[in-house]
Design brief:
Distance between the termini of chain A: 36 Å
Oligomer: homohexamer
Shape of chain A: globular
Largest interface: C-E, 35 and 35 residues
CATH architecture of chain A: 2-Layer Sandwich
Strand content of chain A: 25-35%
Number of domains of chain A: 1
Number of strands of chain A: 9
Largest sheet of chain A: 5 strands, mixed
CATH class of chain A: Alpha Beta
CATH superfamily of chain A: GHMP Kinase, N-terminal domain
Number of helices of chain A: 6
CATH topology of chain A: Ribosomal Protein S5, domain 2
């Protein structure tokens, strides 16, 4: 039995709210249950030095948690003077995942920065950030079209992410904090709406997992991701 | 004429939303028009080293802006590895202001950290942070009473803040970004609900100001602060 | 009774020594009693990026204390790898204050850096730094005239600063360390020699202050500042 | 056809040299073809603060590359003042992987630090580091037994890692730099010698991968890991 | 011919002013011609961790230059967030040199920090700092005797330093900036008043130097150091 | 009697292995007994800003130690976020020493970075680094000739270094760790193969040294350096 009473293949209530703040080209509040992340997409002219002159665009991501987004207060990274290892790991994952959504040649020499800031954490912040970040990205690309800077949106596919894991011996979908902190295995699955894998990151926290568990988790993930892609598309049209 | 069409002595629409996030002992979303700041108050046992063993409490504040809370994206301070001078200046002001609200002996050896994170900026973030931070602080103190860690709340007075300035020759109350960026003078006034000044920070941006302008600005500030104290008290009782 | 035996409206002995060191375009030792600050003004070609191409100049300030300028040794900021919050706050105040003294268009694309280094501290280092820094700045501007880089000095007014406060219930002028560390209220007043306010920073340390105390403090400050302007002008002519 | 002429299921020449340097409790030079990593295991008394008093041990890893271990010189992280994101990501992976090899209760309050320093890079440094690091760890645990600090080695299983990927449409084992820099997909597989997965990190670099490719890659990985476990065991006995 | 018109074996005018600032246990302004350094000695209870419990004292030094102590302004190290390599090198030299002056067992578990801050630079700042720092140290040790914390001063010998070099083919004593910046060789010689070498740091800037030049330079250094020891002793008695 | 059983004028076994790693233009493993340092020389186009447009080249060095190159593990400098003072001091010494080997005009606007990374330490790492670094540098210069970027190698002389010291009252050559940690005096001597001194850094660790000891140490150093120059030349020709 899951602490939340959910079925093994049941996600939390998931919402995507567009235009959550007013300045960014794309701004989304994504909620996976009590996990709440503000994702903004900011368009900048030009690209990093290693890409200059190639006619291609770039997408990068930054991630942060408000100090009291968690049960006990974490030190503020800006005050400590450096981003922690977990933060760095997560923002690199978000960036790689979202780059897969876009045709970089069609984007041209623009950089889009996706900022994912967790205002309340309850497990699964990185998967929420990827899912909401892709919608903010789509919005920012539409803005470029509306501003006549691009002829059409270079979004080539939707990207979303969900976590799966093995909790008390049972594979489950979309772990919340109570499950995540005790799970034997935790895996983040990032896919495209066309069915391809973008990232697969599975970690055996307490016990190794085997091929059968891996297969069951992947099946659950695909099931959950179908819902997420539907929500993204509905939100953009909404 | 003010860009917003407001009267010189008129504040923006101001709201204080309690229990905005679920983990902190006090959590308030404060809105001064389009300026939106999440203020959380976190209670920690013990005090900083310089206060140890004196039986007194401590209150400190930290301030941050989400990178895209502003019109153009600012670099993330955690990524740059240091807090900027403006951030440091503001968080010191918030901390000093809120310490005036509390009887430190009655608080005992607890530290309360007020985190003020701007999710959308449109001028006046520091005054919003002080005003919302004091309500989050009051909530956290109530929590200590409910948890039997204190017999009664050591809040001795309310503290709130508002900006005033001289815009196109006219003293005005509660400047938004359009006014703030062009004002001749900008002053932040922090007071108690008993009528005392806690902090006064006036800066001549374009032209020096004189005693008559100072007096007019202080009158406007007192007028605006009366509304803020009423909102704080109503919110706590609400 | 003040610890120093001074009258409430009496400043400490104040001296301004020009050409204190030999390399800088302006170099002043300013002494407010036992508070001693070396202020140098360094002229650099060009301006910061945000001003480039506008034909205007820039003035900025940096502040530091020698580790043993104080009663007990403070850690060296260069060794700790960052400037403390108080340092940042003070150097921003000095910079804003001194920018008010100069016609930036007339200065043209030069940057003047004012370095204020405290070699002995006894209260009031920031007001001494502003007062001495303005003289160093005036000297540096004269140097630009003598070197034919400017036709005439772009100094448009003198800027000086003094502290006032409420000590044991009485408003007093130019607090030394003994008073400052126990004052109920501490206010720094920065004005021009034409009578305008540039900065007003009042802080209630122990108890809020009221309008009457504010008025009295401002009267004291204006009295003290008259002396400072006379000293600055005499020094430049001397 | 692979650039090296290897078969799809063929690893590079792999060697593990024990006692490569003289000071560390475990010291291994691991070579996967031209990739060469020095792995040392250092035993320290005590554990990090979050584990104190629980009677359990801790294993952590650090990773670095000599500046000219690569084709063009990289800036030295110590000189730049921070570890890059890739470094942080890799050392966290190594640490998590190697913690799975040891019974922490049996280790008791010791910390073992695994340092993995790349002296020559040609792809696959993280998988080489895990594979060689586990042997250094095993050696350090033996040292604790020989020194009578533990009754028997708390190594509960061997952990090794290998990369697999899709190169020009074909799943291949143990990618070198020429393949890695052009692969469509790159996956690092960490397993135990008992057949369980510890970590799975797959990234679609150029094109998403599908379930069939995933399955093929996992089969290749298991094949390669069998060789690695045999080498580890032979080395320890050797 | 030397730029200053001095003879090859002639030092600049050298003065040592005690009690230059009021807070430190020892405070000396040392002037080697236009080079001016404030040296303070601060006594702290206790010793660094690596010495705890051994009953011995410790002496360490820190060095800094005011940003405009030099011909063109240098960036402030506190603002850049790190001490430069030259600074680190110099303060380590000062610390090692002054530790040779004191009987650490007799000092007991006290730490003395020597801060050497250059307010005006004209070559030879490190030798001035050692020479003035030793006098500040002697003063601080006397303070410990006067305060009954030590029975007698643990100063076991005087330490002083002077530079020598080869300028236009001729060995010269106590180089000023004009010479130093063009010298073929520059050597700093630190000795005790009993005739022993403490540190010898010779650098061939433009051309290697030979044994004969080395011998000549050492003879000049000994000659100059005799004067410095006489000045130190006279100052302490003065 | 020396701990190693060596004669006072006897060096350890010294080897220089060229082409130790494959990517760098010059790559040397230098061994002074159990001290092992990898020295690589990397050629970069262009020069630092202060040299731009002068047609001259530049040589600089960086130094590091693997965390467990020593008897007890040292913290990794990259993880601590700064290079220690000893590291900075050593890499500046190496850089100055190796610049003496090359005709900078003939090198033209190239920068050569010498990385010296200690993989096993047993005393004398800086002298090994200079000696091995000069061979790596020579190799890199040859590469520039082979690649037709220079007509002939701008190496104008060989530079090598050795340590000497006073151990239990006797001057000895090439101290290992056991001697170094107990020596009364430790001196590093850097010379050219033409007999000139480049750097002389002598430090009295326990007791001052006198002129006679200095002379004896220099004689030993010259004796040792003859061997080193022979080894360098043989290696390059080998």
């Amino acid at each position: 039995m899951r602490p939340s009473g959910r079925q093994p293949d049941q996600t939390r209530a998931i919402t995507l709210t567009r235009q959550y703040t007013k300045h960014a080209e794309g701004s989304v509040l994504v909620e996976f249950g009590d996990t709440k992340v503000i994702c903004t997409a900011s368009v900048e002219n030009g690209v990093p030095r290693f890409l200059k002159g190639q006619g291609k665009g770039w997408i990068t991501a930054e991630y942060g948690m408000l100090p009291r987004s968690t049960g006990s207060r974490m030190g503020r990274e800006a005050a400590r003077g450096k981003q922690g290892g977990r933060t760095v790991e997560i923002q690199r994952l978000i960036g790689r995942s979202l780059r897969a959504a876009v045709d970089m040649e069609a984007l041209g020499e623009h950089t889009i920065v996706i900022d994912c800031d967790v205002i309340q954490a309850d497990g699964g912040t990185r998967t929420a950030a990827i899912t909401g970040g892709c919608l903010a990205l789509a919005d920012a690309l539409e803005t470029l079209v509306q501003n006549k800077r691009l002829a059409r949106s270079p979004l080539k596919q939707w990207v979303a992410a969900v976590s799966v894991g093995v909790y008390q011996g049972t594979p489950v979908l979309d772990l919340d904090y109570d499950e995540d902190s005790q799970a034997e295995t935790d895996m983040n699955v990032v896919m495209t709406d066309k069915g391809g894998f973008i990232e697969l990151q599975g970690t055996a926290e307490a016990a190794p997992f085997d091929q059968a568990e891996l297969n069951e988790m992947l099946t659950l993930a695909k099931h959950g991701l179908e819902q997420l892609f539907a929500l993204q598309k509905a939100a953009l049209e909404g």
